[in-house]
């Protein structure tokens, strides 16, 4: 390359003539357009934009021009090269899209082939339903308390105001135990409810407030049939604090059924008798299915509640002050409420399960649809 | 308690239009559990009339004897002519009064009646049995009515066939509702109507010449009323109305004297007993049984008595189990007619007992002798101790009225002093229990309605009525007020518990474990914890294996499975077998639950729980005694699997489940717990002796995994190569969950080195790995066994283990020399610890 030469006229330099630059540009654009595939485009690219391409060579000539001419020529060549590069990119994008379409079509598979190679598992709906209840109450501030399934009679009965001669005690179909040599045990049974855990919670607390729920398996010597099982799951609740009332019990139950079944749900209390609560009540909830609209409406019968409008849930009441005394809690200072119900029954009506045996037999076809949560 | 609405209306003037359902709704709101409202004769339609049998022609030539009868039904058939009726029953004679249903009528069922051709005659209706009329199902014979009824009389009304019966499940505290009187009281309160108390009778005062009674045990019997009636007509029958009420209440008419005692019991709630006076020898005595005494009760069973049993005795010994069941020896005799003289022998003199027995004594006798009875049911729940006099009077009146007897003037009434029990409550106590303001006035009114005497202002002294022995505590009174004001009216408020801390570590772990195993393809099952000896035998457990020492049920559901599980595997394997039996091929199950173990407990304390008082908190020592009486109940998790772990598919063959999957399930659990598990070769029933992994955390054995012993598989009819894992969650997490320190992530490149080692086939891979890790030092980032090779090239009884080692430093790029040095150190350690030789 020679040094700038004042007398050097760009018009005189053949390669930098405007017509020539235009021609080179058009040649390049035509070549790109003519390229049928990416390989041809690559060739055209080398030919028209490579170091030895006419436009590149022309570009080199610019440096030798006088300043004014240099500027003009630079602009011209720059514009031409810009157009060429743009055309190249556009053509490449087109050709790549064509190639992708072709290649990816060839690679296509039938994605509807079934793929169930990794076995699917599931948790038992009794477990997950119990956990769901647990979550409702832990979010309110309750703790989940647990205890042994083989339990002392004092904890299962006596402390609950069910002394040895209490008529309610014989109605609980208790499993009694023997040791390995066949000798009857003294004062030890399979728990008939999780109320022993309530007692344990009160004994463990130095002083109320106590807010616990007690889920767990319980045992009654019933035969297994479509609606009974000798081993079933319960959830009980116990709250002991200053000034607790039946209205608090009712509100807690209402909150539970709303959490489980949605807005508009509510409960109803009916007087009943349990030794461990006084006053005692049976608790019903509005039928979550028909919301009570099947009552007196033969056109819309409801199987869930037998068109009664209410579903029986379980028992509840204010903790009998005698129970508090047995646990060392001053009934003049504290009061409490408690409730309990069976999870199997809840599962049966919430999920339209017809036969108790399906819940207990462990058939994977029953459990799998319930998945991981309920 | 079954209460006919017609009977209830006798004591409460219920509005005329009220149906059984209406009454039931009111009673339910007041706290009575009305289970059903039975509609008697709901679909019954007359004409149903009294008929007199005029003639009977015996038809022969049929499979059974058939009668063709002419029956006078008065004008009920419109003609006054005798009705011709074909009848298959034989318990009636010419002249008897019977119940006739005429064509056009409908019997319960519903069965429409029309004249029809049968046995060669036209039968214009039917002569009815009790069953056909829906009166009961005790006998098939037709009803023969007392002679006084006039043919043509409407029998629907006569037999009170149309009625409603409320069936009430009476809770243990409401013994008084085991009577029409008690239910009527609740109905009266519910409707705000007055009660005509059937116990309000004129009763003569006690005197010295009533039946001779000695009460030797006043704790067991605090009241004993005895009356006598003589000159009873032994052939007298219970009147129809009484029989019908007894039937509707769910009992059976038996004989006049027994029916009367039952009727009065249903009416007033006071169980009565009627003795044939001629069969009582000396004074009636109430005492406890003596050792070895026996009594033959009315049901014909000879019972050996317990010294705690409360008895009714005479000079001959026990004549009744007090409050439970009478003895056969003093039973009211059935009337028997002497065929020669025509003289009727039977009971003509009766002593009526109306006593009050201690509930506990009765309850224990019932349990001891497994002898529940209508009387005992009432005594157990508490009978009105003041009702005895009225009940005895009512029975005497009925014996006089319907049996032609004469009441003797003697009235025996032995009463132990009865302390008046009153309860002091703040007038706003019910308000504070309910969380609702009732006000003093309402509280007092409601308590008075249930029969309490109430005095005082802000503090009330409340004396419950004699029929409410259940009202003992302030909260009992609160309940009366709240239930009568309506549970439905309670407001709904939420308490504010102190802020909680959510689930415990162990509860969170249980969820993670369940999610992890389910995510790994296992399905959760919850098995019964009952097992039998057979499965422990099938497991091949040694005689002294602690899993053989079980806690047993005294009253198991099945004699085959009388014990509580010491391991979760029997239940899981049974569930596996059940699934396979129902056609499943690839099954993977898990369970989390308690096992029951006697090993590791104090044999002196075990199963020996003290009977603690309930009037105070037990001491910490006493609570410890209770806990020491229980077996250990460790929480365990177990898996079982059979068939393919991955199924066959269009991708190729599936992969069979193996011992390694069982071990992996243990690692899944350990990972959920954040615990590092190590594996050692073991032999442990019921696992395959060559395919059993012992699972360790550090040096602590926490469980086992592997393939089951082929003998166990065969004995339990399991799929071949069934695998299982079980571990103790508490042992697994005994050191607490792994606390994770945030790792420092090095950005320097990794250096990878492979190592192939040949070792004896018996050397566990875990030991080789441990040696490599220990030798490689801190530069080792990870180590992975990628191949195990056995074959001739390396010689018999040898195996080659190929590992990929990745080294990385935190602060620099490792040189090739550094990586190689670390690799050599790893190999050297493996060589020295396991006798390995480096290969290649
Ligand atoms: Zn419904």
Pattern of helices and strands of chain A: HHHHHEEHHEEHEEHEEEHEHHH
- What is the overall shape of chain A? elongated
**Alpha plus pi helix count of chain B:** 21
The averaged pLDDT of chain B comes out at 92
Rg from alpha-carbon coordinates of chain A: 42 Å
Into which percent range does the helicity of residues of chain A fall? 40-55%
Determine the structural class of chain A based on helices, strands and strand pairing: alpha+beta
Main β sheet profile of chain B: 7 strands, mixed
The amount of helix of chain B comes to: 25-40%
Shape of chain B: elongated
Number of strands of chain B: 46
Largest interface: A-B, 110 and 112 residues
- Unreliable stretches covering 5 or more consecutive residues of chain B: none
Could you name the ranges of chain A where pLDDT drops below 50 across 5 or more consecutive residues? Answer: none
Distance between the termini of chain A: 82 Å
Strand order of the largest sheet of chain A: 1-5-6-10-9-8-7
Domain TRNA-binding (chain B): 42-156
Main location (chain B): cytoplasm
Protein name (chain B): Phenylalanine--tRNA ligase beta subunit
Subcellular location (chain B): Cytoplasm
List keywords for this structure.
A: 374 residues; alpha+beta; seven-stranded mixed β-sheet; three-stranded antiparallel β-sheet; elongated; B: 840 residues; six-stranded antiparallel β-sheet; 21 helices; 26% helix; binds zinc ion; cytoplasm (chain A)
Describe this structure in words.
Chain B: It is found in: Cytoplasm. Chain B: Its cofactor is Mg(2+). Chain B: Tetramer of two alpha and two beta subunits. Chain B: Residues 418-492 form the B5 domain. Chain B: Keywords: Aminoacyl-tRNA synthetase, ATP-binding, Cytoplasm, Ligase, Magnesium, Metal-binding, Nucleotide-binding, Protein biosynthesis, RNA-binding, tRNA-binding. Chain A: This is Phenylalanine--tRNA ligase alpha subunit. The complex is a heterodimer of chains A (374) and B (840). With 374 residues, chain A is an alpha+beta fold. Chain A is 40% helix and 19% strand. Chain A has 13 helices and 10 strands. In chain A, the strands form 2 sheets. A 7-stranded mixed beta sheet of chain A has the order 1-5-6-10-9-8-7, with helices on both faces. In chain A, strands 2-4-3 form a 3-stranded antiparallel beta sheet. In chain A, helix 2 runs antiparallel to helix 4 (67-106). The longest helix of chain A has 40 residues, at 67-106. The radius of gyration of chain A is 42 Å and the shape is elongated. Chain A starts with 17 loop residues before the first helix and ends in a 7-residue tail after the last helix. Chain B is of the alpha+beta class and 840 residues long. Chain B is built from 21 helices and 46 strands. In chain B, the strands form 13 sheets. Chain B has a 7-stranded mixed beta sheet, sandwiched between helices. The longest helix of chain B has 19 residues, at 816-834. The mean pLDDT of chain B is 92. Chains A and B meet through helix 5, strand 1, strand 2, helix 6 and helix 7 of A and helix 7, helix 10, helix 12, helix 13 and strand 31 of B. Zinc ion (ZN) binds next to loops of chain A.
